[in-house]
Amino acid sequence: MEASSGLTTTSESINHSDDGEKYANGVNWDELAFGITPTDSMYTMNCSDGNNFSQGHLIPYGNIELCPSAGILNYGQGLFEGLKATRTEDGRIMLFRPQENALRMKMGAERMCMPSPSVEQFVDAVKQTVLANKRWVPPPGKGSLYIRPLLMGSGSVLNLGPAPEYTLLIYVSPVGNSSPVGNYHKGRASLNLYVEDKLRRATPGGTGGIKSITNYAPVYQAQKQARAKGFSDVLYLDSVTGKNIEEISAANIFIVKDNVISTPALVHGTILPGVTRKSIMEIALDLGYQMEERLIPLEELLEADEAFCTGNSVTVNPIGAVTYDTKRVEYKTGEGTLSQKLYETLTGIQTGRLEDKKGWTLEVN
Ligand code: COI
């Protein structure tokens, strides 16, 4: 057995930093993009060889130290999650369905042969991190605090195999309301997507259905090529037939035809089970729409009335146009569209503007 040499930090443990100051100084809340602003604290919790995660704590936000042979650096044994904390008009701070992220992390950890925190540990860790960074939660309507939990093989391992030690690390950053899909444009501008016909995102039996860190850098090449041609992002086709639509680089896709909403089914393990995807499907059903989860041939997208994508960071983003080879199709966007209605309902619940009849929100103050 190789010696364990997990994550260490140079900082000491801290308690919640609640000095009474409501908002962090020096932040231009009106100009927030989807990017990193260093905050006060981050959360770390370790687990070694066959044990359970225990005794996590807050530490000052900063760089971490890892052994060069850490499992995550060498073999990509890692997962991440993404969720948000939002400030309501009356000053409460809300999380949206954090238990769903905890469950998805558990599912992914199993596939990646990693232990995972319990749902209670995950939710408690997220709450502690948000509370400790409360002054970084943007004012109502200006954005949210993006929360990034990372689960990683932090122990040293040279031979191919699971690391002997694991770390849950949670850091946060205030972000604006703009969508991070595309060129990180301001506002919720509609997307101009390119259908990628050669490079694939996921394969059946692979890891496309979990939030493995190894799923993300492989999309850069297609994204770079598409952006060089003026597109906002890439839509991927299934890797077996190349005929069905699957996902955008980091977002799920929906189409609308004659008021019927459809999204690719999760059955082949190539589509990420997005928390926003799941919530939008439930909201659509509650609003009385027909909602289908199924295989969606590319032709159907090219004949749809509307198309939109969903994700934690993009929320619900309309798709304005799709280009496949030389064919370009445009869709309805803006006022009166179904995606606008779904966006308003979802964000209404997230921000406390609409009553949360489903118990999806969790107050942290
Ligand atoms: C999220 O929506 O939280 C994501 O995972 C997107 C991120 C890759 C930018």
Helix percent reads 10-25%
| Backbone structural class | alpha+beta
Name the shape in a single word.
Answer: globular
CATH class of the largest domain: Alpha Beta
Under CATH, the homologous superfamily of the largest domain reads: Aminotransferase class 4, branched-chain amino acid transferase, N-terminal domain
Quick overview:
The chain is of the alpha+beta class and 365 residues long. It contains 7 helices and 17 strands.
Q: What would you note in describing this structure?
A:
This protein has 365 residues and is α+β, with helices and mostly antiparallel strands. It contains 7 helices and 17 strands. Strand 11 and strand 12 (260-264) form a beta hairpin. Helix 2 crosses helix 3 (119-132) and helix 5 crosses helix 7. Residues 1-5 and 182-186 have low confidence and may be disordered. 2-OXO-4-methylpentanoic acid is lined by residues 82, 180, 216, 250, 311-313.
List the helices and strands and how they pair.
Blueprint: E1 41-48, E2 54-60, H1 71-75, E3 78-80, E4 83-87, E5 93-96, H2 98-111, H3 119-132, E6 144-153, E7 165-175, E8 191-196, H4 220-228, E9 233-237, E10 245-248, E11 251-257, E12 260-264, H5 275-286, E13 290-294, H6 298-302, E14 306-311, E15 315-324, E16 327-330, H7 338-350, E17 361-363
Helix pairs in contact: 2-3, 5-7
The chain binds 2-OXO-4-methylpentanoic acid.
The site of 2-OXO-4-methylpentanoic acid (COI) has 7 residues, from loops.
